[in-house]
Amino acid sequence: MNIILFGPPGAGKGTQSQQLKEKYGLIYLSTGDILREEMAAETEIGKKVKDIISKGGLVSDEIVVSIIKGRVGTNLQSTGFLFDGFPRTVRQAEMLDEIMKAFSLKINAVYSLEVPEEILINRMLERGKTSGRADDNIDSIKHRFVEYNAKTRPVLDYYKKRGNLVGINGVGEISEIFNNLCKEIDKL
Does the pTM exceed 0.90? Predict the structure, then answer.
């Protein structure tokens, strides 16, 4: 079972992913977490990524795709993958299809957490008070939404055309959203 948890910044992808990976035994591939690990380790890639992310930009496809391909390739024995924060562009979605095909895999479903922008902004500002994330400030948040709407939102259409996009209400209690996700996943 290979699934993508999709949504705008602050939709709760990371929170839900942690519970989903535990319940379904999936390999969790969060580009955000992977890139933050690189930044914390102050690797060469990490330093480049830190500069891009602090300005609210998106990391290049080449960097992200190479990391994802490596992680998929080294975990082929798993029960499946849970992608969080990837793909972020239609090109990345196409590249992910190529990666999956190369390993004789496919994306079974894409679950899109749907949350109004005003709620998302408030969530990220609150998270920024405790997270220490450089991108949880109002200027970066606004820029992230511009980037999301221009580059990432079109990914929804990509998967909708393939018939594997499922919308999930991302407003409510964490447990309620999780239960709604599980009901849909259990249909696979």
Answer: no
